[in-house]
Sequence to fold (264 residues):
Amino acid sequence: MRIDLSYDGTAFYGWGVQKDLRSVQGEILRVFNFLTHSKVDIFVAGRTDAGVHARGQVIHVDLNQHQIDRLENPERLNRALPEDIRIHSMTVAPIGFDARFSALWRRYSYRVCDESTQMSPLERNHTLFHYKPLDIDAMNQAAQGLLGLQDFAAFCKPRDASTAMREVEYLKWHREKAACVMTVQADAFCHSMVRSIVGALIPVGDGRKPVGWPAEILAGRDRTLGPTVMPAHPLVLEEVGYPSEQDMSARQIITRSKRAQDEG
Fold:
């Protein structure tokens, strides 16, 4: 089953189950296990960190017909789930579908308010308040140096036996009234990568760093000299893209092979 959902990450310690800590996966598993009277496994398109939100998260779960009948529909699931998680659809997945490995891309947004008189406390859980005006054009110019397939080691929290090679397909800022919103899309993201990109571009926007600074950091591949990892609460997983049904299996094989090479 493919399940599309959203959640407000404010009160969660990330996606993955953690002992004695509230997580998105933990809440969903609790409900699924209770309703199906069995233990199920959930696989997610993108593991979000503590405080990160999702508008377009995707998971898959393997169920037999009895389990599907007990779940009935998204409405029953939503009645059992806490209000900071909502399931929008639950459908039989096409052959070869895997929420993580079949994905072509993930798209995130990051919201920053740079006009102090327009900073609403009602938005504090989803917006970064920045007390210097930001130059959108300068940030977009700097963003050009981060596009394409590159080694983002300086922008990622290091992990053993893994690579930081990622392909950023789209990276751009735009204004929505008093807010500056960054949209970034890539085949995948390593840990803290999006928030580090924001941390490299904001100093350009407020004049503290030159336009070429983010590209210089990228070229240096040194995490100790990397940008500040910005707060998690303005970050939202907006959407996950998948190929056509007939290409699901092929995409999964390609991604699994790539990840195996990366970790090998």
Summary: Helices lie at 24-36, 65-71, 74-80, 136-143, 193-205, 213-220, 248-263.
